[in-house]
Amino acid sequence: MGKGKSDDAKDIKRKDKAKMQLKRNIGYFDGVSFIIGTIVGAGIFVSPTGVLKHSLLNVGVALTIWTASGLVSLMGSLCYAELGTALPFSGGEYSHIKRGLGSLPAFVFIWTSTFTKPASNAARALLFAEYATQPFYGSCPAPEALKKCLALAALWSLGILNGRSVKMAAWVQTIFTLLKMLALSVIAVGGVVLLVGGRKENLARFEDAFSSEIPNASQIAEAFFQGLYAYGGWWSLNYMAEEMKNPSRNIPLTVMTAVPAVIVFYLLVNISYLTVLTPKEIVSSVAVAVTWADRVIPSVAWIIPLSVAISIFGALNSSMFTLGRLSYAGSQSGHLPVLISMLNVHSCTPAPAMIFSTTIASIFIIPSDLITLTNYFGFSAWLMIGLTCASLIVLRYREPHLHRPYKVFLPVPFVMVAMSFFLVLAPIVWSPNLQYVYAFLFMLGSLIVYLPFVHFKLRFAFLDKITCHLQLLLEVCPADGFAEGKCG
Fold this sequence. Notes:
Oligomer: single chain
Order of helices and strands: HHHHHHHHHHHHHHHEHHHHHHHE
Shape: globular
Low-confidence stretches: 483-488
Radius of gyration: 23 Å
């Protein structure tokens, strides 16, 4: 009798493994690596000057804003942790907005993200190529063609890796996150050592931290905007919620580990820079970490450009991973072509979604001027964060019985919604630019596609034939039991 039950349990396990669906391969440490890897890019090494500059070189105000920006990011990530544990689906904000606010706002999100997120990946790939080629050309600029070829090679290497194996992508992410944190640790520890046994002028900057000119409200807001930009990426874990092991436990735990760790490192690294360099030197430096290394560890200063390249490569890997999941979720809901939601029959990875997002990023690399156009979409990121937190509030009242393994303190999402809409409106009001109008019109342009193809479900027979041929070519098939209503 017992043996029969045991065999039944084994059969169920075997069937689950054989199912064509995304596998739960991402554990706690992988999740921490993905969040830290997405947040920490080149900025903290190269140009952590925006906060200090807009704080009018006031050290105390700058460090306070770094801390406050980190705490706002932590509040946002806790809101996302509730949504990720209650609705553990791929797609991040897209899935939550669709469930909370409906199909149209979700389509506007994916329409905008389909262009802005690959452009961001293209910019990262070009920056990686810049730093990877720099040691070979010294003070001379590397040829543009070489940088673009290397950027494309990096994009497609990671695209293929993410399309073939989730475990390998997670392993690469962990390695590169450890390497970049090791580099930050060298800067942080070096600064602490110098501060403890330092000269009087070094200590004076911190003893009289608030003694210089205090910035006005608009300058503080601008510095805050710069600080929040440096923490960008805290939302990445929700894109892979469907692949997290034990998401109800691991999502909140991962968020509560990764974001505070980044806050601590950012503060220590900034203190280290301020210990070695004056605020004026930091603001005027092209690459702060390189200037720091030239002063503190001149014999191995080459480690910093290498660390920047490693950091960018790790951030590129995690952002490509999450973008593939966004495309996959959008296709499952009928907002992108059906082929994109199919999984490889051998590896159960969203290979078509990875090919789709990597192809768009590659298009942005070739005429790289296109990337500058997406700078005016910065406000859209905070608009979508605001809508996601609004979805949380709506779901609390509309679906009170939805199982929520983790619940955030309710005033927190209200604060995040208010903060988000302030950050959307502030740059438009302070520095009005016609480009913002174009960006807004582009977002509204999604209606031209939404009405015929999503709302009225217009279909073309020849596209079904193309899908069928591509399905055979790529060896992919639809995920088992995927329902268009999964996210809403």
